[in-house]
Design a protein that fits this description.
elongated, four-stranded mixed β-sheet, Porin, mainly beta, 452 residues, 16-stranded antiparallel beta barrel, single chain, 2 domains
């Protein structure tokens, strides 16, 4: 209707426009002009219809989308992941951490040279220098204990722009008196480590810098490779820079009297022991080489007074080598003269006195090899061989002095839960004297250990 009105109005305007006279004098031209106008109006009407159709489709799509959004369920708000638990807690400028483990041991031992007495540490740990020799072969002795239980406390902080840390570590390996298994089985608290670090410096009691604890075997026994490893904790001052470390450590000399097999703890040193170590870590594993130089001294007063000193030295190389993706081989080889108290839990003394009261350093060589195999993520086994041989001067020492020791052990350890280990280990150890006499120890050790 509106289109027709527009057409009429356009025609009237055309007729009223200037030059209409020409059209009036030519009806054919006027008809053509009107036809052209009607064609243009028809085209305009088509465009309007198409525009209306497009607008209707767009409005329908908007309505559909609005309905779809309205019908969709409101998504639940996903809570943020929980924050990881704090590692330690703050005290002033320091982060304080506490940890340790609880360990229970169940030990059955057979000694072919006689049982050690109640309270003897050999009943709890493998001490090669204490294996009985020459006594009666008794039946199996069984001992339960939890004395390896340990705890530690550390602090870390920045003070005056310097990184400062401390560590205190204790366990219960010291028995009161001769020990008491009749009623409460008590154990005394014993200091293991206590030191402070300031940047690259360490002051206090720590593992000797001559030792590499990172390669110690994974065993049920406290040490395992006892006769073959460097093993000492003592007060020291150490400086570490990158792979290199140097220390001065508490001196002490153990002496064998002339033609005897006993031990004198001299306590007469005037110079500290000096150690240096170089350690590297590579894709194949880790390794270190360490050296020690020390004074050996012994002094007495009165009739037959002794005042003697000499030098001791030693080298120790250690490595942990990856085998395949999960297994590893751990080895150590140590040797020198006058380092007896550092190796094998003082299996041999540092020096021996000659007939004139002069000290002579005792030589030794020791080492171990241990292979760890991972069966599954929860099961693993370790197979370890350890040995020490002492180079005694037979003209200065008793035939009852220690000559050599060796041990072999294998275990299986199950980790059913993180930080919980349950394991069993079978070992055989032997001690031999210069006389050729020997004693053997066979032990089955079962343990449960939980770290926290």
């Amino acid at each position: 209707m509106k289109i027709h009105l527009l057409a009429g109005a356009a025609a009237a305007a055309l007729l009223a426009a200037p030059g209409v006279g020409v059209a009036q004098s030519d009806p054919a031209a006027l008809e053509a002009r009107i036809a052209q106008l009607e064609a243009q109006l028809a085209e305009l009407r088509g465009d309007v219809a198409a525009s209306r159709a497009a607008q209707s489709a767009q409005n329908a799509e908007i309505v559909r989308l609005d309905r779809q959004v309205a019908a969709a369920p409101t998504p639940a708000t996903t809570p943020p992941p929980p924050a990881p638990p704090a590692d330690g807690f703050r005290v002033g400028n320091n982060t304080v951490k506490f940890g340790g483990f609880v360990k229970a041991d169940f030990i059955a031992s057979s000694y072919d040279g006689g049982d050690p007495g109640n309270g003897d540490l050999l009943r709890d740990f493998y001490l090669p220098g204490s294996i009985p020799i020459g006594g009666a072969d008794e039946s199996t002795a069984t001992d339960f204990n939890a004395r390896q239980t340990r705890f530690w406390l550390t602090t870390e902080g920045l003070l005056g722009g310097r990184k400062v840390g401390t560590r205190i570590e204790m366990d219960f390996q010291v028995l009161p008196g001769a020990g008491d298994q009749r009623t409460t089985s008590p154990s005394n608290l014993s200091l293991r480590r206590a030191f402070v670090t300031v940047d690259n410096w360490l002051f206090g009691q720590e593992w000797s810098n001559f030792q590499n604890i990172g390669v110690l075997p994974d065993t049920a026994d406290y040490i395992g490779s006892s006769e073959g490893t460097v093993f000492a904790r003592q007060v020291q001052v150490r400086y570490t820079r990158g792979p290199f470390s140097i220390s001065i450590e508490n001196p002490e000399t153990t002496v064998t009297p002339f033609l005897a097999a006993s031990r004198i703890i001299a306590d007469d040193n005037s110079l500290p022991d000096v150690t240096a170590r170089y350690a590297v870590t590579r894709p194949w594993g880790e390794a270190s080489i360490a050296g020690i130089v020390r004074q050996l001294a012994y002094e007495t007063t009165g009739v037959g007074a002794i005042d003697s000193s000499t030098m001791g030295w030693g080298l120790s190389a250690a490595a942990k080598i990856k085998v395949g993706e999960k297994d590893d081989l751990r080895i150590m080889l140590s040797g020198g003269e006058g380092i007896g108290r550092y190796v094998g839990l003082n299996f041999a003394n540092d020096a021996v006195l000659d007939a004139s009261g002069e000290l002579e350093a005792i030589g030794l060589i020791a080492g171990f090899a241990s292979y760890r195999h991972i069966w599954t993520p929860q099961w693993r086994s370790n197979f370890t061989y350890s040995a020490q041989s002492v180079d005694n001067d037979r003209s200065l020492i008793s035939l009852a002095a220690n000559k050599s020791s060796q041990s072999v052990r294998g275990n299986v350890i199950w980790t059913p839960l993180p930080a919980l280990d349950l394991g069993a280990e079978l070992m055989f150890g032997e001690r031999e004297l210069e006389s050729g006499a020997s004693g053997q120890l066979t032990r089955l050790q079962i343990f449960a250990k939980y770290g926290f």
